Structures are given as structure tokens and as C-alpha cells.
């Protein structure tokens, strides 16, 4: 085994801020949705809007960081992506329970397996932007109606925003489970805290 530095300081900061903001958004969103009553609708509404603005600012900052440092290359895959995703999925469904080695070894140039690459890419480029855009349409709904938008769109927009929020809950549960499938139960999480991880020698 050897120790490799996988996550730069900004990346760890961004990751945990993103997690914190998303938990705050899910929590306040659930209260706005009426699932429980804790701080009151008005306070939950304001909290939700402030954290949404914060998330947008952080996402733009993170995009800037990933592009300018070139780290976005970690998300690109050479060769047949589908074959690689299937290989990784088969490992999670089968090989992992037979103690087989991980099909893709981690190193400083390639820290994410193909399934992680596609999942995180979809989340960051499709899921979160869609949720933020729909949220902004919801927030400025009256202004948009004044500009000519059909008021009947309010319900579909609200349902879509809620659907995406539930999908995000699904992602978080799956994501936290998946992070325990590293070399040891906590090795991936430790890497996201310290930046360093022990990986198999090539
Ligand atoms: C709540 C919302 C969360 C979101 C949106 C999120 C998103 C992400 C993303 C995009 C990455 C890839 C970073 C990169 O390598 O470029 C990542 C990695 C990681 N996340 Fe999260 N995360 C969340 C919560 C959590 C939580 C609660 C934990 C642990 C308790 C966690 C643990 C990790 C770990 C260990 C990695 C390293 C790569 C891996 O093992 O998959 N995350 N996360």
C-alpha cells in the first residue's frame, strides 16, 4: 500500500459545504412542504432561499476551480464508458461480496471509478442545475406570470421541484453507503476529510 493525496483543500471544503447546504435545503424544504413543524413556515422559507443562493454561489466557484485547475479531467473516460460502468456495477452487485479486487485502481491521476464519474457528472451538470433553475422559476413565479407565463404551471413546477428533492435524498443515501465500500469502511470518508488515502501499489 502507498499513501496518495487525492483531494485538495478547496475540494474538501467545497464537498463538505455542499453537503451541509444540501442538508439545510432538504431540511427547510421538508418543513415548507409541510412534513413537520419546527421553525415555522416563514423562517423555513427564508432559510431555504438563503441556502439556495449560497449553493448557487458555491457551484459557480467550484466550476471555476475544476476548470482552472484542470481537475475536471478526472471526470473524462477513455474507451467504452458503458462497458466500464457495467464492470463496476457488476463488482458492486457481486464481486464485492466475494472479496474480489476493485476493477479500477485509484491513483492521483484517476481517483474516481467510471460509475462514480458518470453519477457525479450527472448530479453536478444535470440534477443540481435543474433543481436550482426550477427553484428560481418557483421563487420568481409572480414576476414571470406578469411577464406572460401561464399561472397553471405553478403546480407542475412545484411537483417537479419536490420530485428532484426526493431523488436527491435517494442520491445521498446511496452515496453515503457507497463511500463505505473502499479499502476499509471509513477510508474514503477519511480521504475526503484529510485529503490522503492509502491505495494499492500499482
Ligand atoms: C449531501 C450531499 C452530498 C453531495 C451533493 C455530495 C457530492 C459529492 C461529489 C460530487 C463527489 C465527487 C468529488 C470529486 O471527487 O470530484 C463526492 C465525493 C465523496 N463524498 Fe459526497 N456528497 C454529499 C454528501 C456526502 C456525505 C454525507 C458523505 C459522508 C458521510 C460523503 C462522502 C464522500 C466521499 C468519501 C467522497 C469521495 C469519493 C467517493 O468515495 O465516492 N458525501 N461527493
TrEMBL record:
Residue intervals passing through the bilayer: 12-30, 50-67, 120-141, 153-177
GO MF term set: electron transfer activity; heme binding; iron ion binding
InterPro entries: Cyt_b561_bac/Ni-Hgenase, Di-haem_cyt_TM, Hydrogenase_cytochrome, Ni-dep_Hydgase_cyt-B
Key words of the record: Cell membrane, Electron transport, Heme, Iron, Membrane, Metal-binding, Transmembrane, Transmembrane helix, Transport
Domain Cytochrome b561 bacterial/Ni-hydrogenase intervals: 7-195
SUPFAM superfamilies tied to this protein: Transmembrane di-heme cytochromes (SSF81342)
Pfam family, one: Ni_hydr_CYTB
GO cellular component: plasma membrane
The family this protein is said to belong to: Belongs to the HupC/HyaC/HydC family.
Protein name (Swiss-Prot/TrEMBL): Cytochrome B
Organism: Chlorobium phaeovibrioides
Amino acid at each position: 500500500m502507498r499513501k496518495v493525496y487525492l483531494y485538495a483543500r478547496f475540494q474538501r471544503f467545497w464537498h463538505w459545504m455542499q453537503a451541509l447546504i444540501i442538508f439545510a435545503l432538504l431540511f427547510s424544504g421538508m418543513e415548507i412542504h409541510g412534513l413537520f413543524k419546527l421553525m415555522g413556515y416563514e423562517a423555513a422559507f427564508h432559510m431555504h432561499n438563503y441556502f439556495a443562493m449560497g449553493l448557487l454561489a458555491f457551484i459557480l466557484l467550484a466550476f471555476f476551480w475544476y476548470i482552472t485547475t484542470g481537475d475536471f479531467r478526472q471526470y473524462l473516460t477513455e474507451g467504452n464508458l458503458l462497458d466500464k460502468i457495467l464492470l463496476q456495477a457488476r463488482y458492486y452487485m457481486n464481486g464485492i461480496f466475494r472479496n474480489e479486487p476493485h476493477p479500477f485502481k485509484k491513483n492521483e491521476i484517476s481517483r474516481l471509478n467510471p460509475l462514480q464519474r458518470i453519477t457525479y457528472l450527472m448530479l453536478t451538470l444535470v440534477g443540481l442545475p435543474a433543481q436550482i433553475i426550477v427553484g428560481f422559476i418557483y421563487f420568481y413565479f409572480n414576476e414571470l406570470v406578469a411577464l406572460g407565463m401561464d399561472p397553471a404551471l405553478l403546480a407542475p413546477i412545484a411537483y417537479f421541484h419536490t420530485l428532484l428533492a426526493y431523488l436527491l435524498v435517494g442520491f445521498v443515501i446511496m452515496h453515503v453507503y457507497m463511500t463505505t465500500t473502499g479499502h476499509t469502511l471509513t477510508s474514503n470518508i477519511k480521504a475526503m476529510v484529510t485529503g490522503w488515502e492509502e491505495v494499492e501499489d500499482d
